[in-house]
Amino acid sequence: MSELSVNHLLGIKYLKEEDIQLIFETADHFKEVINRPIKKVPSLRDITIANLFFENSTRTKLSFELAEKRLSADVINFSSGQSSVKKGETLIDTVNNILSMKVDMVVMRHPNPGAGVFLSKHINASIINAGDGAHEHPTQALLDSYSIREKLGDVNGKKVVIVGDILHSRVALSNIFALQLQGAQVMVCGPKTLLPKYIDKLEVKVETNLRKALNWCDVANMLRVQNERMDISYFPSTREYTQQFGVNKELLDSLDKEITIMHPGPINRGVEITSDVADSKQSIILDQVQNGVAIRMAAIYLLASKIKQ
Question: Is the pLDDT at 241 greater than 80, yes or no?
Fold first, then answer.
């Protein structure tokens, strides 16, 4: 396979396993590039990319912008807080005005699920979904799988538990799709109130006992509790959540085996994970951050290659 089967990266559910492997092979090359003294290639010198963030982001926005600049693309940044969206302009009008400035590709984060899919039907540019509500976050899932592959040699056959706020997490859904597509077994673990009603339809194992989940898995991907998406209380208190679903070093050391710890960030240290776990040799959290640039370079490069045809 030499090119992606899709013209947009809207979600993992639209990809084939071959697409993921192509992105990983391309990321391998770019990871080597970003570890050179000169970390830049001229691949996208004639491409302009607009980063449209209708929702706050630090890590993802910086990672995309760095990936685009490493590829020598021209980059413009948009934040809804200081835009005409505040004056009532529609999403399509806002994006079409930006595209009329000869923009080739859009990277968009939006609070509404499906915003990227909607936009892809109305504009003439490649779109990368940088997170849409509680729906999907495809590049995060790709970098998570890539980091597992790098640490354990393969994703196929591995047991991965996703722990925490599954209900409000776009990372969880994209990870489930990506891991299953590559042959991994997936479990979710968290309070029953933070497990979506449709979870049974995703063919994942469900566990509410954290110790049992950790004893089952090779990898634990710890998620942040997304208080900003909650309009009611889903558990009695943060202290009780941490006691039941937080991972600390004492718990890890008491397991029958050594497991790999991941976290998509931002970390609430002392809530879902303690500092001595986040900074331990079992943690690959900083590897995930570095791999995010290589994965985003690969996705942008492969989609831009289709624009040039």
Answer: yes
**DSSP string over the chain:** --S-S-SSB--GGG--HHHHHHHHHHHHHHHHHHTSSS----TTTT-EEEEEESS--SHHHHHHHHHHHHTT-EEEEEEGGGSGGGGT--HHHHHHHHHTTT--EEEEEESSTTHHHHHHTT-SSEEEEEEETTTB-HHHHHHHHHHHHHHHS-STT-EEEEES--TT-HHHHHHHHHHHHTT-EEEEES-GGGS-GGGGGGT-EEES-HHHHHHH-SEEEE----GGG-SS-SSS-HHHHHHHH-B-HHHHHTSSS--EEE--S---BTTTB-HHHHTSTTB-HHHHHHHHHHHHHHHHHHHHHHHH-
Q: What is the pTM of this model?
A: 0.94
pLDDT digits (tens, 9 = 90+) for 68-114: 999 999 999 988 766 666 667 888 888 888 888 899 999 999 999 99
